[in-house]
Amino acid sequence: MTPRVLITGATGFIGGHVVAAARATPGLRLHLMTHRTALAASAGGPGVETVYGDLADPATLRGSCEGVDAVIHCASWIGGDEPTARSVNDQGTRALAEEADRCGVTRIVYLSTASVYGRGPFTGLLPGQAEPAPASATSLTRAAAEQHVLAAGGVVVRPHLVYGAGDRWAVPGLVALVRQLSAGVTGCGARHSMIDAEALGRALLGAALSPKEPAGVYHVNHPEPVSCSQLLSTVLDELRLPWGATGVDVAAARERLAGVPYALHHLGMLAVDHWFADERVGQDFGWEPGEGFTTAFARHAPWYRRHLGGGPSR
Fold first, then answer.
1. Whole-prediction pTM
2. Residue span of the structural domain in which 209 resides
3. Contacts of 211 (CB under 8 A, 6+ apart)
4. What is the DSSP string of 159-220?
C-alpha cells in the first residue's frame, strides 16, 4: 500500500525541506497544503497533489485529510500579532487535528520549537524534565498547538536553532548581532543545540513513516551541542564577515549593546546553555543526524552569502 502524507506549510522554510525529503523517498504520495503562496513548479509531478487550506479558516480544512495516512504539520504563524498567532497556531491546529481524526488519520506530527520552554539555561534537558514556560505570543500559541496534537496521540518535535537554505531568523539574527557589536564574542562556552534544516526535514518525515509508532514530545537536534564562541566564529569565517579578527567577551558585549534591545535579547540567549538532549530520536524515527554544525554550515554558506549580501559564492 502506498503511504499518503499531507504536509502543511509546504512552501515554508522547514516544510520545503520535508517536501524535498519526501520526494527523495520512493513510493510516497504527497498532499501539499498551501495558503496564498503558489507552490513552485518543481513541487509538482507524479504522486503530488496540491491541497488548499487556511488554518485561520477552519472550514477550508474540511476534506484536506481524506485518504491520508499521516499529517506533517509545519505551518505556523511567527510574529508578534497575538490574535493571528492564536487563530493560526492554536485554533487552526485544533481544527486540523479534529479533521485528521474525522478522516481516520493514524499519525500526526507537529513541528514545534524548543522556545516553548522560555529562557534558559537548559543543560542536556530531556523531554519531560521541564514544563513549557513560553515568553512570547508565538511560543505561547505553539505550546497550545502541541496540546491538541498530543491529545490526538501525535508526535511533537521541538528543535532549537535551525539553519540552512531558507533560514530567515537564526543565522541572520547572529549576523545582525555581530554587526551591531562590530566583533565576535569570545570565551563564551554556553552550549546550543543546532540542526540542519535538511536533517530536520528527514526527521519529520521519519516520524510520520516510522513503524515504531512514536508519540509524545521529542527534542530533535544534532546530538553534539555547539558552544557560543564556536557558533559565532564558524558563521563569521564561512560568511567571510570582516569582524572575524576582532572579539569581545560577554561582559564587554553587553556594555556595547546597552540601549539595543533586540541585540541584547540575542546575546542573552547565546550566553546561557540551550542544550536539549533526546537519545530516542534515531531509533524511533529511523533517523541519522548527519554532519555536525561546522561541516554542514560550510555547505550552506553560499546560500547565506547570497541572502545576506556577505560576498560572492564559492
1. 0.94
2. 4-167+193-223+275-290
3. none
4. -SEEESTT-SSHHHHHHHHHHHHTSEE-S---EE-EEEHHHHHHHHHHHHH-TT---EEEE-
